[in-house]
Amino acid sequence: MDKIRIIGGNPLSGTIRISGAKNAMLPLMAASLLSDKTLILKNAPLLDDVMQMGSLLEQLGVSLTVDASGATRAVHLKAEKITTTTASYDIVRKMRASILVLGPLVARCGYAKVSLPGGCAIGVRPVDLHVKGLMAMGTEIELEDGYINARAPSGLKGADYTFPLVSVTGTENLLMAACLAKGTTILRNVAREPEITDLAHCLNSMGARISGIETDTLVIEGVTLLHEATYTVLPDRIETGTYAIAAAITGGEIQLIDTDFDLLPGFTSALELIGVKLARIANGILVTAPAGRPQATDIITAPFPGFATDLQAQIMALLTIAKGQSCITETIWENRFMHVPELMRMNADIQVEGSRALVTGVKSLKGAQVMATDLRASVSLVLAGLAAKGETVISRVYHLDRGYENLEAKLSACGAQIERVKVDEAA
Ligand code: UD1
Question: Looking at residue 123, what is its pLDDT?
Answer without folding.
Answer: 56
